[in-house]
Design brief:
The chain is built from 4 helices and no strands. The protein is elongated, with a radius of gyration of 27 Å. Helix 1 runs parallel beside helix 3 and helix 3 packs antiparallel against helix 4. The longest helix has 65 residues. The protein has one domain. By secondary structure, the chain is mainly α.
Length: 201
């Protein structure tokens, strides 16, 4: 076999090897991209569900307040709790639905914007849930069980103790979830940054 033939065979093999490497790189990028967008999509859907649930909670508070409207000490706080939930719903209307057909840079901007928005509203959202609970629970107990928290000090003390334990656990769990989601979103941003750099190299 002549030297030129060997060179041609080597070049062809090298070309095939490079094609396989490129194909494997593209498959790996696609798989990792699907994992990244899938993780973000889960967090996004939960966030949208939470936003829409806030509107449902608002309606529940208003309906319960109207059922006991003559009892201002119960109905007024319920209305305030409902309006707080409405405010929470409106504050999250700016959440942008991701378009996975966008460029990597635009997708990275969408994830970053969503992460910043979520982090900025985390403590506010937890506070709204606690406020809603403390404004609706007395109405619920009064209307369905005829338990007057404000006039029965013993019942009020038990209610406050149970609520404190329950809401402390809920707050701790919520903060942990927000922190974990924030890290996942940061990881998604970092991965997209690597892909952008890879594309431009």
């Amino acid at each position: 076999m002549e030297l030129d033939e060997l060179k041609n065979i080597w070049k062809e093999e090298d070309k095939n090897l490079n094609s396989k490497i490129k194909l494997n790189e593209n498959l790996l990028i696609k798989m990792n991209m699907e994992n990244t967008t899938g993780e973000f999509n889960k967090i996004f859907k939960i966030s949208v569900l939470g936003r829409n649930t806030a509107l449902v909670y608002c309606f529940i508070s208003i309906i319960m307040a109207t059922l006991i409207i003559e009892e201002i000490a119960y109905s007024l706080p319920a209305i305030i709790g409902g309006l707080a939930m409405l405010g929470s719903f409106l504050s999250h209307l700016s959440i942008e639905k991701p378009n996975y057909m966008d460029s990597l840079i635009q997708l990275q901007k969408t994830i970053r914007s969503f992460r910043i928005h979520t982090a900025a509203h985390a403590k506010y959202d937890i506070f709204i849930v606690i406020l809603w609970f403390f404004t609706l629970a007395p109405v619920h107990l009064k209307y369905f069980y005829n338990v007057s928290l404000y006039s029965d000090h013993k019942t009020l003390a038990i209610f406050c103790l149970i609520s404190f334990v329950f809401l402390t656990l809920i707050t701790a769990l919520s903060l942990k979830t927000y922190k974990e989601n924030d890290q996942k979103l940061k990881n998604a941003e970092a991965y997209l940054a690597e892909l952008i750099e890879f594309e431009n190299s």
